[in-house]
Amino acid sequence: MVELLYKYFILHKSLAIPGIGFFTMNQQPAQLDFVHKVVLPPVPQINFLPGCEQVDESIVDFVADETRSSREKSSQIISRFFDTLRNNLYSNKQVQLPFFGLLEVGADGPTFQPAASMVSYFAPAHAERIVREDAEHHILVGDAVRTNTQMQQHFHEGSRRNTTDRWWIYALIIAIVAIAAIAFYYWRMQSMQQA
User: In sequence order, what are the beta bridge partners of 14?
Assistant: First the structure.
C-alpha cells in the first residue's frame, strides 16, 4: 500500500493522511556552485504539515484504478491502512514510512524527518566558463539589439578617442599660459618704463 501512496504522491505532489498530516513535495531549483564549478541538479523536497481530518477522494479513485477494484473496496483498504498507520504512530511514538521518512509523535503532535535524500535523476554538471573569441551573439543594450562585435568596436573606438584625441587640449593650455606669461612680461616692462 505504501508503494501506491508514494506513486500517488509523486504524481500529485501531495498526500493527506487523516489524523496525521499533509505531505507536499516542492522542487528545490538547480544551484550553481561557483567554487567547485558545478551545477547541482534540482532536488525534490518533502514537507509535512500536521493536522488533516479527511481522506482526499482522488486517492480513492487512484487506488481503485491501480488495483482494478471498486471504489468502495479501495476506500475500505485506504481507511484500514491509515487507521493502522495512525495507531502504530501513536502507540510506538514513531513510524518509518518507506520512501518518505520518519514520522514521530511528540508533545506538539506529529513531526516528520524526511528520508536522507530523495532520488535525483540528474547528476551534477561540470560548469566552466567558455569564451569564444570568434563567436557572435546578440546583446540587448537599452532598447537596441547589437552584436558583441559591434559593442567591442564601439568601446574600442571610444577608448582610443578618449586617449588620442585630447592632445590639442594640452597644447591649448600650454599656449594660453605662454601667451599670458608674455603679456605679463610686456605689461611689467611697460610699467617699469613709465615709472
Answer: 24
Q: Identify the H or E element spanning 21.
A: strand 21-28
Cell 482526499 belongs to residue: 56
Q: Which positions of the chain have pLDDT values less than 50?
A: none
pTM summary value:
0.56
> CA angle, corner 74, sides to 71 and 76, nearest 5?
110
Question: How far, in Å, CA of 25 to CA of 47, rounded?
Answer: 6
Pick the closest to residue 55 from 70, 74, 33 (CA basis). Answer: 74
The whole-number pLDDT of residue 161 equals 55
Rounded CA separation 55/74 (Å) = 12
Are the CB atoms for 45 and 131 separated by under 8 Å?
Answer: no
Q: CA 166, CA 54: separation in Å to the nearest integer?
A: 81
* CA–CA distance, 12 with 4 (Å, rounded to integer): 12
Q: Which amino acid is at 16?
A: A
Angle at the Cα of 141 (from 137 to 146), degrees rounded to 5? Answer: 40
Q: Are 112 and 101 in contact (CB under 8 A)?
A: yes
Q: For 3-33, how does the pLDDT look when each residue is reduced to its tens digit (9 = 90+)?
A: 888 888 888 888 888 888 888 888 888 888 8
